[in-house]
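TL;DR need structure tokens for one chain.
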Amino acid sequence: MADKFDPYREALVMETDTVWPAEYADLPPAEKSRIEAELHAKPDQCSDIVYVRTHTGFCRTITVTPADVQRLST
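>> reply
TL;DR here they are.
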């Protein structure tokens, strides 16, 4: 289950991860990198975000959704 954006946890994010559903396997690597960078630059706009506690803080995991791809496609 996805979490809501949490400013407190955001301040403690030490790692990031992006999960790409299989439907985006054909997306060019450069486009994936660009979208990932934009998603992690503005995590408050993501609908599927999970914070996982680590020894040093939190890992933010964003699962890419069709809405994210549509919003960030050029």
